[in-house]
Amino acid sequence: MLYIMASSANLTVIISVYDDRVLVEQKLAEISRQSAFKTSNFIFIEPNSPGLERELIKPFCESNENCRLITLNERITLYEAWNLGWENASTKYVCISNMDDHMHPELLESVAKSMEEKTCDLLSVLIAKESLGTTWDELEGRCLCSLNISRRPGPFFAWKRSIKDSLGMFDSEMTVAGDKDFWARASFLKLRMYLLPRVLYIYSKHPDQLSKNDAFKMQKAKDLERSHSKEYSHRWPVSIQRAIRWESAKLQLQFWRSLG
């Protein structure tokens, strides 16, 4: 089923929700603060979560025509959820955001504008890795050179909805490395990629993250084994990683010049 949402929107944000009840209020407020809120669509996917986040998200979606809630009676993987959101998106561009991460108020506006101007197929931004609960006010009060910038685009990225015809969708058989596989496949097919050189996303680090437990390591090993059967190298695009390193170096240089 294809949801008919805000007709003026050009970007859809897919948000997978699972056992995140304590984060719902914060995420809805974050979405509402987006400068491009009215020209963006938001699809929440809640796959039989024990937190019953649907109870808190449903009123918000009923009050905003550009928001939709898809609920399931069974558990699915993160990448299956992203594919489901992708299939139900009707905008030119699509992106993802995790419940425990934070979008800068200008993120969606900047992403949609850059994808149009750069005519790219995939786009990421500079992503700061910070402790859970870090706010943009706190971050912007610090020197940018002190930020721990992620060297991979996995926590946040956007793409053209139409590339599923050439690239295909996320590998639903993967459980933790589907984003890396997605970018690796895009690099192999030489799709157009762009790094927006602004810190516009916070990837939250905390003890309860999936990547902190042994189950993650086992799942990662299985995904790696699966990647060996593919025709392309299982790695993040060199061009994007190089661009991230370059922009991080520029931040450091600007800082040292300011001291002189």
The Rg value, from CA coordinates, equals 18 Å
Mean pLDDT: 91
List the secondary-structure elements in sequence, H or E: EHEHEHEEHEHEHEHH
Biggest β-sheet strands, sense, barrel: 8 strands, mixed
Q: How would the global form be characterised? A: globular
The level of helicity is 25-40%
Q: Helix- and strand-based class?
A: alpha/beta
β-strand amount:
15-25%
Keywords:
globular, alpha/beta, single chain, 260 residues, 8 strands, 8 helices, 36% helix, 8-stranded mixed sheet
Short description:
The protein is an alpha/beta fold and 260 residues long. 36% of the residues lie in helices and 20% in strands. Helix 1 links the parallel strand 1 and strand 2.
Describe the protein in words.
By secondary structure, the protein is of the alpha/beta class. It is built from 8 helices and 8 strands. The protein is globular.
SSE layout:
Blueprint: E1 11-16, H1 24-32, E2 40-47, H2 54-63, E3 67-72, H3 78-88, E4 93-96, E5 102-103, H4 107-118, E6 122-131, H5 136-140, E7 158-160, H6 178-188, E8 193-205, H7 214-227, H8 238-259
Parallel strand pairs: 1-2, 1-4, 2-3, 6-8
Antiparallel strand pairs: 4-7, 5-8, 6-7
